[in-house]
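stuck on whats below:

***
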Amino acid sequence: MRRMIPAAAALLLATAALAGCGDDDPAITTAPAATTAPAATTASTAAPATTAPGAEGTAAPPDTTPAVTAAPVTGGPVLATDVFVDGGDIPVAYTCDGANDVPGLRFSSVPDGTTSLALTVVDPDGGDWIHWVIWNIPPATAALGPEVPAGDLADGSRQGANDYAQVFEAGDPFPGGGEVRIDGWDGPCPGPSPHRYVFTLYALTGTIDLPGGTPGAEILAAIEAARADGSLIGESTITGFYPAG
């Protein structure tokens, strides 16, 4: 663990930040296409920002018009949540001002030939601040969360470092009392101006051959490489806002 700054200085840094809230292309290991993707049966994105968390990058005043869900690539998959309505407000419990709970997500209509899923959460109004990257999710997965610990998961899913790693360490406290995960979900922390949080689910015909803890920007680059070579076969998004406008 790196040396921490004094508590008072850390508090001042976090408070100031909250006022605003690589190398070669990573390889995609392509697996033979499956004939049928298991159906979902149950319910339950970007360069890193360069400023402290809470600022989530320096951006122009955000467009607070609720975003329209982007049309998924033909064949799905479908991403949904019971935590907020697409284009609506994210509850405080899922943010740095609350408990930093993981929002439960549901997956369905996974395309035939999918061998892994990936999920990203990015704040485009905060300099594309990365809040979550998780990849190599088994295609039969029907739900993710709300109980998702930091780090790699037992089903083979891997989680990378989000942009809070630029300032905090895992286990540091958020203002609302929740703990910073780093390798996993860490929620919105934009300050008083509403920001958009874009959740994107990707269907891939291969796996991303990068270890857990890889910086989120590298995972986003790997996903874009998959788009370029055709091994990204489906995607969909949902968007939430925080705080309420």
About this structure: Confidence is low (pLDDT under 50) at residues 1-27, 31-53, 58-73. The CA atoms of residues 96 and 174 lie 5 Å apart. The two ends are 38 Å apart (CA to CA). The chain has one domain: 7-242.
